[in-house]
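Deliverable D4.2, example record:
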Amino acid sequence: MSVNRCMSLFSRLRPHVNSRTPRVTAGGGGRLSAGSGSSHRQQRAGSASSSSSPPKGPDTSLFVPVSVRTDLSADGSVGAELAQPLQKDKLLKLFNRFYTRKEMQKLAADQGLDARLFHQAFVSFRKFALEVSTLPADLHIILSDICCGAGHIDDIYPYFMRHAKQIFPMLECMDDLRKISDLRVPANWCYQYTSNWIKLSVIFHAGPTNSGKTYHAIQRYLAAKSGVYCGPLKLLAHEIFEKTNDAGVPCDLVTGEERAIMDTEGRAASHVACTIEMCSVAVIDEIQMIRDPARGWAWTRALLGLCAEEIHVCGEPAAIDFIRELMYTTGEEVEVNTYQRLTPFSVLDQALESLDKLRPGDCIVCFSKNDIYSISRQIEISGQECAVIYGSLPPGTKLSQAKKFNDPDDPCKILVATDAIGMGLNLSIKRIIFNSLVKPNVNEKGEKRMETISTSQALQIAGRAGRFSSKFSEGEVTTMYRDDVPILKEILSQPVDPIETAGLHPTAEQIEMFAYHLPDATLSNLVDIFVSLSQVDGLYFVCNIDDFKFLADMIQHIPLNLRSRYVFCTAPINKKQTFVCTSFLKFARQFSRDEPLTFDWVCRHVSWPLAQPKDIKNLIHLEAVHDVLDLYLWLSYRFMDMFPDTKLVREIQQELDDIIQQGVRSITRLIRTQNSKPGQTSDNSNKTADRNSPTHPRAKRGPSGDNTLASRLVREGLLTPGLLQQLQREWSKQELINQYALDTEHHDSNNKGKKK
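Output generated by the structure prediction step:
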């Protein structure tokens, strides 16, 4: 190498190593904007957030270091040619001295390196400097100068920070990341489809269950030249779809898994179930779900992003003040129409206590599928027929069971259901009977715990009794156990907690911008960092993302582009169902190979055709297969070329729905078959055990109720009667084993005594 080239290179390097005070540069990047044109609603939203709190510090535990290659050096051996060789033992002492200097730790903290990141960065930097075959020329020279006494230990700092920013790239762009994750003005990114000249008219239809609030909103929807209805359930969308077409107004159906176009030539109708296109009237049902920890973001996005001249929102009166405040930030006024319940319901003073007291029109509400099975079996053993409805049943099966219960000519007059009846089904119920007042809930942090149902939940369920237009003009509400009656009265007497916040969720575009700055981060890590840096004002919260992260981690090893990976992770699946999760993984793997998921492939995967269920386990598997077909249909409307056989899959899903309906109709036989398997008690012994158990509804209870631990656990939903029986059998077996051990020990001691 020529001397001139060496001197030229040295002159370029030297200015960077002479300064002992590092120069702090701001993280670059373009300024983010919410789009061209600032409407009146965006101006109001901007002023509303001006008093927000300062940016919070990031959760550095989410920062995953990126590996740095040690086998490349653009300068070759220039550093070794210009300076003396470096001895590793001296370098090690040098680095350890640098690590202990408080001044360096403070400077690093100003650059975003807290104690945890500083330690990780130092370990990586030391390893890099000691193990790399050829150091960069500038670093080699400065280390040589320090070893020779011509430099100061602090001169290492700029090179240490350079390495830290390589392994933690988010340090370079923290300002940009904070701007991207700033959720304080959601109207700015929810209104991206709205023209500036649109002046919204927001009408809030407030009232309890069975007050006609949704009816009045739908009447305006039917009269409009175009409209969109947004509801929380497929059943509600189907109901509005059918009612709209029956009224002579062409309407299309759009749900996550289904598209129904009424026009034979494929032209879009003027009324649909969900769209972002401009329309005259939009109806958003069950607006109180805007505070739901998992799904609230969908209501927020609909309310702030729907393009309509009129938006009719329907929900509880507890949401009135919040919706007013929320729309104030966008510059819109809210007109409120209040409604009273059309038919009254009363809370009875007496609990049911025994299934012998059931009457036609009764509905027992449980919060556990096992309780559904147990109670429905006991009812049918007593000679009565019952319908069964719970959340994981297909929509067609739910409608079939509801029709069976509502049919005056059908002998089925009793309904056993979960809180799935709270919305989406019109049922002719006279009396609601709460089997329990506790249910599993998931809070904003994703923590699951057993909690007493809220006033809002209790009113939603109790309001199904005595529904308007049914044969029962008045409704009644009670509990299964006498101890729960005063608790239920207390719950229903309390005012509904006012809604104070609305849910938000990062969009695909925001995550893509994050990925631009952090290309090596996983999707799960990107979302974690986004939530950690996100800023929200007092009106909003970031929804729980545990399910999203669960799916992201599951398919992280599968090569997918970021947008496809994001879409897959927003799929509505139940992560508790093993078969559904396995299918999700196989779908993603097949998709990544660019191999279409054909009808034949799906049939092989689910082992179609499927037989009638022989026991409860088979029935649960069929429900999981139905969810897998739902997942296929959901993905088919997002990746049409890779999931091409939508029509064929929908046909076998309908056949499967019929099979499940047959299984639910014979659910008592399935339970009896399950219980009569080897290792389980017979039907008669179960019946006796159930009736003798203190947790059985027909068991005699004292004036103050049974206060045993087992009874309390069952009442609180933490233990089912079936599990209690199994524990009793296991304890009995263990007692026999213990008794055998004592007898053996006693026998051995006697033998020893005889020998003596």
